[in-house]
Design brief:
Elements (H helix, E strand, L loop, with lengths): L8 H4 L19 E10 L11 E4 L14 E2 L5 E8 L3 E7 L7 E2 L9 E4 L5 E6 L2 E2 L15 E10 L4 E9 L12 E4 L18 H10 L7 E5 L6 H4 L4 E2 L4 E2 L2 H19 L9 E6 L1 H12 L6 E5 L5 H12 L7 E7 L6 H20 L3 E7 L6 H15 L3
Parallel strand pairs: 1-8, 12-13, 12-16, 16-17, 17-18, 18-19
Antiparallel strand pairs: 1-4, 2-5, 3-4, 5-7, 6-9, 10-11, 11-13, 14-15
Helix pairs in contact: 4-5
């Protein structure tokens, strides 16, 4: 039995990790080719009846996309055929339906994204899976924290329905002084300070801020990283629901939690400058989207906002509609950026850059102070945001 070709993955999937306007879909009239993935071998520890998915940049890095489900063939292999734009660089990994079950290396180590460059002809790739994340002891990864980072486990988050882990960076000299510091709230806390906790790479926030302090370029900043909710991440990072993905819609609740529960705790616990002039919010991709939304929703709390590679087209471009209605009620400094190679497909990348330029122009018309950075060679990845972070934070918090 051959598996049927799925709906056009390039046009039917709205997502997050592609960094686009939420749609990897091609321009009208753009040609597509068929990419067939055939999984010939899975680990002996694979559960009976397991269902496999391909998570990729053409699916917005959703762990279990409807158009990325592999079907079982008569010869015992798994197969999926995807229609993708000709000329696309497809990056992907296999999962059993969640990032907790993503494929790993044979000793449980993180494996790089699989990559296939699709040209003008149909392509078939045959591959095997060495291990699943939940079925193998993880390989030890060295901690890469270099700064003063405190972890708070089990922080009560009743609005979000449970508890969260906080990772709080304190600037050099904090313990030896009585000084108060500005605060930057950030999302995806797992990825900010430590490669051993990261699910996609490290921002090196602690290394960058320590270096800025040593160089005398920055006087100090407290960074509060809030771990994301795993599979509910997209739900919390957008106030709008994406009907195709079935994700999003809890962003208002999440933003309210940041303002009404998390910030008061931080101000009570550490020596902060709690006023709006010294409070910022930042994130990337969907984290960039919720940073923009929360910043504009609560200008009395956040005067500094950074959106790295924001997913502005999530939920049929509702974020762009929201930005068009935004007007500066109080002075706010907004940093936006985008890589020129976010998706790996030239047409998509031009669209992403055009979209963030439009967002910046719209916000300037609304009376905001805006800085836009286009990083031509950069992809949609933590390593790219790490490079841009130092200049972004010095601009945001300059006097």
């Amino acid at each position: 039995m051959r598996c049927p070709e799925v709906a056009d993955a390039s046009g039917g999937a709205r997502g997050e990790r592609d960094g686009s306007d939420g749609v990897m879909g091609g321009a009208v009239g753009e040609s597509t080719v068929s990419l067939t993935l055939v999984v010939t071998r899975v680990p002996a520890a694979t559960p009976p009846g397991a269902v496999l998915f391909v998570a990729s940049n053409v699916h917005g890095w959703v762990a279990a996309p409807g158009t990325g489900r592999l079907c079982r063939t008569d010869d015992g292999t798994w197969e999926v055929r995807l229609a993708v734009p000709a000329g696309t660089r497809v990056e992907y990994k296999l999962t059993r339906g969640s990032w907790e079950t993503v494929e790993k290396g044979p000793r449980g180590e993180e494996r790089p994204n699989r990559v296939v460059q699709v040209g003008a002809e149909d392509v078939e790739v045959r591959l095997g899976v060495s291990a699943w994340a939940d079925r193998v002891a993880p390989a030890p990864v060295g901690r890469t924290v270099s700064g003063d980072v405190t972890i708070v486990d089990g922080f009560a988050a009743p609005e979000l329905g449970g508890e969260r882990r906080l990772r709080v960076y304190l600037p050099p000299g904090y313990a030896a002084s009585r000084r108060r510091y500005p605060v930057l709230f950030m999302h995806d806390g797992q990825n900010l300070f430590d490669a051993s906790s990261s699910f996609a790479g490290e921002w090196e926030v602690d290394e960058s801020l320590d270096a800025l302090a040593r160089e005398g370029r920055f006087e100090g900043l407290i960074v509060v990283g809030l771990d994301n909710a795993g599979e509910a991440r997209l739900d919390e990072y957008s106030p709008w629901r994406d009907r195709q993905l079935g994700k999003g819609g809890r962003g208002d609740i999440y933003a309210s939690f940041l303002v009404r529960t998390l910030k008061p705790f931080v101000d009570r616990t550490w020596r902060t400058l709690p006023d709006r002039e010294h409070t910022g919010i930042a994130g990337s991709s969907m984290g960039g989207l919720i940073s923009l939304y929360a910043g504009l929703r609560y200008p009395e709390v956040f005067s500094r906002v950074a959106a790295f590679s924001p997913t502005l087209g999530f939920a049929a471009r509702m974020p762009m509609r929201y930005l068009r209605t935004a007007r500066a009620r109080l002075p706010q400094r907004l940093y936006l950026d985008m890589g020129g190679a976010e998706s790996g497909h030239p047409t998509r990348d031009r669209e992403l850059v055009e979209l963030v330029r439009a967002a910046a122009s719209t916000l300037e018309v609304g009376g905001f102070e805006v800085r836009l950075v286009i990083d031509a060679p950069a992809q949609h990845h933590e390593s790219a945001w790490a490079v841009r972070f130092p200049e972004a934070v010095t601009w945001l918090f300059r006097p």
